[in-house]
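Bumping my old thread because nobody answered last time. Still need a sequence for this structure:
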């Protein structure tokens, strides 16, 4: 019986060798480098077949051979090809595909059709009829599209600012107005962005819309009337800043004394602001924690490689701020937050809220961003214009230093020190000691992966709370 099976097997295999002609003169090249074959290529039905291992290994594919059924399984990344000796039907990721000729065995080597296999693996195959050579080449990579890695939207009573940070220098842009209805349009050449439209909390501009096109990305500001605007670029051309001059809002909409309130049960009874002592209602310190951004202003955004959102600054700021709030409250400190959910709170509202509470200390929590994604570290800001100790708390500079030291010690990242920034609205417009903590960088992969984790947000919060408590005790 075994003898019969052996004879039949030999017969079947001999059939696969019919119409085979040796081709000693055929050379095989991969990206202009010759691939040496221990057995010369052969031609079957005008198709070149080459030894399996000589073909697959240089292409980076792996090969498994099942001698029982005479089948080769070729894999490369997420592609699997199965080829059987004597069969002109292959399976590619489970689907049957017809070939021009079947694999064979020649001189004890399995031989496969080079064009079929290489093209299925994503390579380009060319035949030089004059030289009788086969050229396999890696397809050229498409140039990676420039992507917006961070889009920040902020507004004061007078100016709406949109800052976009790009992965590469901007190729160019076109800006123009469209009427009926009024829209300000920016077309950014060779660029992509992956996010939803943003409602804009600024009088005179209702929405910021975004759309990807074949050769450009479009930013559209929906407006009631045309407004003056300026555009500036960084020296590296990786940051574009648009500033739109806003019309004067009706008085009831620009009233700074309007304030965001905490949840209903925590709403403070605020007396006339002229009678509020600088250090709280009963002589005890009052601390206001301000999670930066929120609602239609996500702040800096970190992206996955496919362009989807990995994390927003607003959500991380809020996570840290909630922990700080809980820690201070457990310590018996009277503490409030400018927002406890992902909602819009203007800069004017944040400052007015702290002023009306008669707060002792205002701490705004943010995370930084930069066009250079290698930049990492911790930074705390204050305003030198109001750098004086008052109301039972240290000066803004001292508080900034106390919080900075605690954060660096706890988080263990690079310290960028403390710095005076007199043009930051919440530092200028608050009537008390005020600082702004830039915990880490949303634009740095390691930083954002660290601070996205809740356990690390708690680490940062404990450090900020420690700095606050130290400042209150030593004030």
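Sorry it took so long. Here it is:
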């Amino acid at each position: 019986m075994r003898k019969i099976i052996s004879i039949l097997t030999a017969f079947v295999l001999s059939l696969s060798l019919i119409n085979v002609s040796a081709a000693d003169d055929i050379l095989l090249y991969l990206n202009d480098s010759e691939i040496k074959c221990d057995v010369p290529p052969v031609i079957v039905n005008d198709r070149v077949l080459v030894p399996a291992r000589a073909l697959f290994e240089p292409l980076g594919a792996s090969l498994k051979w099942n001698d029982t059924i005479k089948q080769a399984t070729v894999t490369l990344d997420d592609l699997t090809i199965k080829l059987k000796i004597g069969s002109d039907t292959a399976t590619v990721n489970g689907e049957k595909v017809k070939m021009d000729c079947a694999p064979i065995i020649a001189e004890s080597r399995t031989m496969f059709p080079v064009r079929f296999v290489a093209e299925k693996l994503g390579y380009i195959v060319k035949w030089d009829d004059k030289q009788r050579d086969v050229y396999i080449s890696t397809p050229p990579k498409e140039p990676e599209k420039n992507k917006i890695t961070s889009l920040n939207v902020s507004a004061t009573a007078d100016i709406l600012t949109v800052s976009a940070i790009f992965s590469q220098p901007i190729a160019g842009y076109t800006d123009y107005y469209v009427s009926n209805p009024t829209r300000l349009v920016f077309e950014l050449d060779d660029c992509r962005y992956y996010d939803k439209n943003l409602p804009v909390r600024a009088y005179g501009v209702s929405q910021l819309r975004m759309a990807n096109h074949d050769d450009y990305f479009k930013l559209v500001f929906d407006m009631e009337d045309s407004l003056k605007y300026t555009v500036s670029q960084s020296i590296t051309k990786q940051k574009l800043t648009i500033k739109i001059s806003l019309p004067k809002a009706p008085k009831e909409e620009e009233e700074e004394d309007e304030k965001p309130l905490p949840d209903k049960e925590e709403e403070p009874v605020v007396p006339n602001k002229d009678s509020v002592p600088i250090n709280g209602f009963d002589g005890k310190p009052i601390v206001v924690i301000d999670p930066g951004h929120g609602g239609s202003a996500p702040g800096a955004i970190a992206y996955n490689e496919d362009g989807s959102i990995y994390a927003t600054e607003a959500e991380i700021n809020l996570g840290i701020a909630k922990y700080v709030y809980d820690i201070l409250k457990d310590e018996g400190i009277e503490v409030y937050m400018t927002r406890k959910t992902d909602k819009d709170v203007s800069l004017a509202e944040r400052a007015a809220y702290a002023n009306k509470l008669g707060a002792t200390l205002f701490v705004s929590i943010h995370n930084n961003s930069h066009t250079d994604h290698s930049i990492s570290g911790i930074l705390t800001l204050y305003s030198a214009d109001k750098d004086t100790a008052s109301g039972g708390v240290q000066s803004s500079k001292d508080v900034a230093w106390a919080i900075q030291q605690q954060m660096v010690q706890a988080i263990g990242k690079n310290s960028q020190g403390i710095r005076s920034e007199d043009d930051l609205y919440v530092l200028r417009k608050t009537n008390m000691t005020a600082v702004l903590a830039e915990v880490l960088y949303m634009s740095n992969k390691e930083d954002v992966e660290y601070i996205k984790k809740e356990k690390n947000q708690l680490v940062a919060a404990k450090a900020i709370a420690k700095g606050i408590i130290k400042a209150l005790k030593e004030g």
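The longest strand covers residues 146-155. Let me know if any region looks off to you.
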